[in-house]
What we know:
With 727 residues, this protein is an all-beta fold. It is 2% helix and 46% strand. The longest helix has 5 residues, at 546-550. The protein is globular.
Amino acid sequence: MAASFGQVLPTASDVAVKQQPMTDSGSLKNSLKGGGDIIWQETFDWADPTSPQGWKMPEGWSSTDLSDLGNTWIWKKDTLGANLVKVVPPSWFASKSDGYLCLPLDEYNYRDKIATKNVANAYVETPKIDCSKAASVVVKFNQYWRYCCTNYNLEMMVTNDEGVHWATYDVKYGTAGNVFTPERYRSLEINISDVAAGLSTVQIRFYMHGPYEYFWMIDDLVLAEAYSNDLVMEDTWINFDNGAGTSIGQINTWPLSQMGMAGTTGAVGNYSFKAAFLNNGVNDSENAKLNLEILKNGSQILNEQAAANTIWALDRDTQDIPNPWLANDYGDYQFNLSGVTDNGDDVPANNKTAYRFSVNDTMLFRSDFTVESSGNSTLWSGGSGAGNMIATPYTLFEPAELNSITAYFDSYEVNENPQFQFVLIKLIGDDRQELAVTDVLDMDSTYVGKYVTLPVTKDGESEFLQPGSYYACVRMWGTMPTTGAGSSGIDVGRDLSTKFGGCPIYFTIGGKWSNVSGNPLWMIGFNLNKTGGPVQAPVTFNVNMTKHIASGQFVPGTDVVAVNGLAASWNGVVTMTDQDGDGIYTANVEGLKVNNELQYKYSINGTVEDYPTTGNPYRSYTVRYWNVINNTYNGGVTTGVDTKSLYASFNVFPNPTSGAFTVEISNVTASDLVITLTNIQGQTIYQNNVKNVVNYQENIGNQLSRGLYFLTVNNGKEVKVQKVVVQ
Length: 727
């Protein structure tokens, strides 16, 4: 059988691609306070060993596949995925240990190892929920998704009349396909008071239709009364001006020589700031306004507010900081955006965000330094991926000399023997001209998990850049061992948190560029031959020793923890101290080289840690002007723990409770305890540290709202958890 490929390429975002999941950075904390009373909740504790499938859907729930292919929502508690992705329930699923609900499209479209493209058209629906006694209703749930490939529809729907009418909420918030859930959309709170409050037959439906890959997972579903005051920052925009009143998008690192020149409407590099707010609370938000704080190397240099406006309950408002801001010096800047109101806020964490911006002498880099996902162009063209390029757009405003190109490599396919090359392309009208290239290198493990910088080949002409538009590119070649077809074979890092889309891809099949709106930001930049910025900076190291102190593996005042430099940039050893006794040890190291990769480990009494447990040889950090590193010793792992239980008993009573309960603990030997109570969203409601006890009893919480809580007791070597139900 022969196969041929046409010259017309499909839209890049319309084809499934293999991609690494984003880094699991933990739960998006919405608040440290309890909210209103819980009306109804579900943790998906559906395991049933008597059922042939190992689980059973509770009465009143239903799961429907409108395509009649049997591709329904199901219950799972382990790894999900088959062909293109394999994922585990993430850390922000507070009750992940008892299972979660999912629509596993990747599994459905790879039955018997045969790939299909059956699109999703399935929903799962709750039983009727009585909200008749609630003056307000908020839906809360944790989610994790990735989807592809044409119509990306992930919807939460609400009915109060048994399905005659539905209110629909987009719970992907316009995110483009082929990415894992950005952090801001992992833990949602949606006010549905206008369609649910005071009504007795409310039902929630989760409906996925259109994509044929990959999955949608949901856990910790709660209906609760709304907070009294809850101003939510729904979105933010920080825009780098090109001097003509037009933004070139968000920038994270930029040379001082490429900003500040006069434009037609203002200076190049002027930053403007805007935010969209939702009043998700019961009360009107009076004199609500956007606040901007700017820090330079950790010190405040600006604090400014937008004009105040009262935002009615469930109403929205968009606000701008009135004056643009321009950095005029080298440094690491932080933009802190927050909403402030006369009412105060019961959930302050959901109305603030922060961005970093570095002004240096050499580097143009759109992305931040956190790798949240990765991928390449393989399969997007419907044919060979060998020779394809992925690109990140940039604009130069002043003449400059090109020195090198930088990209982050996340992983690669060893058996495809891939190679790579960096390329700088200049845009001249509709023409794209290859201006400068680096050597072609064989990919190997020494390039994985780091930023790689390669010098461009200079000929005395092509490296001298004029103002204009450019692409910083990675070109990749590989070979599929099973078919001999060309591939990319390398995964380049992606930044999902920096708001910039439209990174283009060049396909050798057809010889065409694809400019996809919303295509995630590739972590590629380039560097100028320029000097002038600081060449050294201090670094503050913080390492959390609390777990090792609790386990007895580290004794304060007797044992010594130090930070050890392992790279040529710093070969020192510095003893760390804990001045305030909180178990966080600190050391400051002066004079480290800016933009160099710092390699280091921690040690106790001269014995260097085995970090991390995955086997990577060292910790790494790229030095900037403002450097504060927060780590946990050895990943928080303690060793040499006795397998015999240290708890003789751990009881909670009464359970269920009307709002207060007693915890009773008996230890085999005297131990320090950390007692923690969290709600279903993973928010800490209460915590107490108890020193050197064998038998201990404590009364907790006479003001707890109705709902499900998790009581955790940790003695440093062993952790016990019990569910607590407040009725």
